[in-house]
């Protein structure tokens, strides 16, 4: 069912791409968990990559849906397994308010589906049963356009749903820096 939803989304985006610019996006995440019992956690540096489409609503407002593979997670300050990587397929829908020819303010919701969760290095033990399959949150940020084809964005992702199945409430958090390349 999940695969079917992703395929339908991709086909829908492909149909709309006939009229709107599309491109690829790649960048880095500095992610961790926030909430109860997270004082012994540190940020984990990882990546995100995927596709985006740009839809002009008005002269000053654009909508940018994205389909990304993104890696959140955290480092443990103690223990045998130093990090946990949470791999998501994420769908952010970003509203961009254009301030000038080069700058925009960005904000919008994001839903994510947990694909895998691994801890440690080397064998990477499966810890997916410890996490919920979904994540929902909001993004806030800015974008800068270098040219008609190349831009960059800096965002803060704030998860608002509990992602762990333990008794505490924990939320994904990430600072994301990305480069976007329009291919059409």
Radius of gyration: 17 Å
Distance between the termini: 30 Å
Count of helical segments? 1
- Give a short account of the largest sheet: 8 strands, antiparallel, barrel
| Secondary-structure content class | mainly beta
Helix content: under 10%
Strand content: over 45%
Poorly predicted sequence stretches spanning 5 or more consecutive residues: none
DSSP strand count: 11
Mean pLDDT across all residues, rounded?
87
Notes on the structure:
It is a single chain. The protein has one helix spanning 2-16; strands at 22-35, 41-42, 44-53, 55-56, 61-76, 83-98, 103-119, 125-126, 134-145, 150-159, 170-182. A hairpin with a 6-residue loop joins β5 and β6 (83-98). It is mainly β and 184 residues long. The mean pLDDT is 87. The longest helix has 15 residues, at 2-16.
Q: What's the quick description here?
A:
This protein is mainly β and 184 residues long.
Tag the structure with descriptive keywords.
single chain, mainly beta, 8-stranded antiparallel beta barrel, 1 helix, 8% helix, 62% strand
């Amino acid at each position: 069912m999940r695969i079917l939803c992703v395929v339908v989304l991709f086909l829908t985006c492909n149909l709309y791409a006939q009229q709107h610019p599309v491109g690829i996006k790649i960048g880095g995440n500095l992610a961790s968990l926030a909430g109860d019992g997270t004082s012994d956690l540190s940020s984990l540096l990882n990546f995100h990559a995927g596709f985006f489409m740009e839809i002009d609503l008005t002269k000053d407002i654009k909508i940018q849906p994205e389909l990304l593979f993104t890696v959140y997670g955290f480092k443990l300050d103690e223990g045998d397994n130093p990090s946990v990587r949470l791999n998501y397929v994420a769908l952010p829908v970003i509203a961009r308010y254009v301030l000038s020819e080069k700058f925009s303010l960005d904000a919008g919701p994001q839903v994510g589906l947990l694909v895998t969760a691994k801890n440690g290095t080397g064998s990477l033990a499966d810890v997916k049963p410890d996490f919920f399959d979904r994540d929902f949150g909001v993004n806030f940020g800015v974008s800068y356009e270098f040219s008609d084809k190349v831009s960059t964005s800096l965002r803060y992702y704030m998860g608002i749903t509990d992602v762990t199945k333990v008794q505490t409430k924990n939320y994904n958090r990430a600072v994301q820096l990305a480069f976007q390349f329009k291919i059409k």
